[in-house]
Design a protein that fits this description.
This protein is mostly helical. It is built from five helices and no strands. Helix 2 packs antiparallel against helix 3 and helix 3 runs antiparallel to helix 5. The longest helix is centred in the N-terminal third of the chain and has 29 residues. The protein is globular and about 45 Å long. 21% of the residues are buried.
Length: 102
Amino acid sequence: MILSDGLSVFLYGIRAVGSLNAFIGMSLAVIFSVVGFYYLQKSSKNAIKWASLALIMIGIHYIIYLGYSYFGGMIGFVLIVEVWAIPLLGLGISIFRDQTSK
């Protein structure tokens, strides 16, 4: 999108929501995953917390994506392909709560 329209995709209309969601949400998910992998290599209990945060970010991303697709008129495609990732939010929250309560 940036290649075809430039940085204006982050500034105008419904595409700004989708672009910022993908850029920020999925970047955080990757960062949390890398930190979790680092702690996994060190055999730390923090690895599960960071992995659960990555799952939470993926779930939040797809919930925002679902809303973006609904208001952008693309809901039919989303319901066929992308809905499977939304439960990752609940999974991540439950794992995170379980780890922080210990």
